[in-house]
Write a structure and sequence with these properties.
CATH topology of the largest domain: D-amino Acid Aminotransferase, Chain A, domain 1
Strand content: 25-35%
Helix content: 10-25%
CATH architecture of the largest domain: 2-Layer Sandwich
Order of helices and strands: EEEEHEEHEEHEHEEEEEHEEEEE
Shape: globular
Radius of gyration: 21 Å
Largest sheet: 7 strands, mixed
Number of helices: 5
Distance between the termini: 41 Å
CATH class of the largest domain: Alpha Beta
Length: 320
């Protein structure tokens, strides 16, 4: 029996601190692309969180999964670049993507279907037990995402000391239910989020291609609200790439619901006549210090583009 064509992924709610207690286990929060792997009689598909087929982008990962001793399976995990110290890196992920995905590691943290048996209704620990058995001796490039049962906040602090992004905590007794965000929660070491790129400003001085990216998010009514700018964290090669990509999306009209302020307490003056607006289709991942009282981001750093995420789904995350 074939596995489902696509399963909507279970998502996380952002919390300020990791929970603790016997009902929770904790996993490292990986810094890569959320990918589901669908295996059917040796044929492998790699599917993004929105259901796009990215198998052709990562042939090495697909080939490794094809060697698993299963008739069919549906796995959930994160495809990552990994630094020499073992820490996952979104920058390395994007560099490897440009080379066809060589050297990436697929960290598998859930098993939803195995040899025709629907496992999604089982409690998390039952699914993880079966997954651990399946990946007891994984092929190169595939890894089992282990979990910890210790104090969640202590585990998060330890993860932060090792330079990790954060922790995902999961209820041990819950089934896989995509619309239940209370079952999986994430607590971060850095403030980090996804934002829609709505335009770019002209460069100044010797800086080439573009000055800064204008960022936004959708509110509950679907309006696109300005969140601030990011101009650091981009190499000259990245600036050139972004300029080429965004130039193809240029539009004459501002896509924001409300114009951005020309003057802010933090950051330089924004000259709207020098802003190049774009269709709000590209999502960027950004680290930042905090949200200022005026509702704008402070001390932003560009991490990379999130081609696996749809712009219309980007919302401002607020810790519970």
């Amino acid at each position: 029996m074939s596995p489902p064509k696509w399963i909507k992924p279970q998502l996380c709610k952002l919390v300020a601190k990791a929970p603790s207690g016997p009902l929770w286990v904790h996993e490292i929060k990986f810094d890569g692309y959320r990918i589901a792997a669908r295996i059917d009689q040796g044929a492998v598909q790699l599917l993004t969180r929105s259901g796009l087929d990215w198998t052709a982008k990562y042939p090495a990962t697909a080939a490794a999964l094809a060697t698993l001793k299963v008739e069919s399976a549906y796995l959930d995990g994160e495809l990552c670049g990994v630094r020499p110290d073992g820490v996952t890196s979104f920058e390395l992920m994007q560099q490897a993507s440009d080379r066809g995905g060589a050297g990436l590691v697929y960290f598998v943290f859930d098993l939803l279907d195995l040899d025709g048996q629907d496992l999604a209704a089982l409690p998390l620990l039952d699914r993880k037990t079966r997954l651990a058995a399946l990946l007891e001796k994984p092929p190169d490039g595939i890894a089992f995402s282990a979990h910890e049962t210790s104090d969640g906040e202590a585990f998060r602090r330890a993860a932060c000391r090792h330079g990790l992004e954060g922790v995902v905590s999961k209820r041990v007794d819950r089934r896989y239910l995509p619309d239940d965000r209370s079952a999986w929660v994430k607590s971060k070491c850095l403030n980090r989020g996804e934002f829609v790129i709505t335009g770019w400003s002209d460069p100044e001085g010797s800086r080439p291609f573009l000055g800064s990216l204008l960022l936004a998010y959708h509110d509950d009514d679907g309006r696109l609200l300005y969140a601030g700018r990011v101009g650091t964290g981009m190499s000259q090669k990245t600036l050139a790439f972004l300029h080429r990509r965004l130039a193809l999306l240029a539009v004459p009209k501002m896509p924001l619901a409300v114009p951005p302020p020309r003057e802010t307490r933090f950051g330089g003056r924004l000259v709207l006549s020098k802003v190049h607006w774009v269709r709000p289709e590209v999502v960027a991942e950004i680290t930042y210090l905090t949200w200022a009282e005026d509702g704008l981001l402070r001390h932003t750093v560009f991490v990379g583009l999130r081609d696996d995420k749809l712009a219309r789904e980007v919302r401002r995350e607020r810790p519970a």
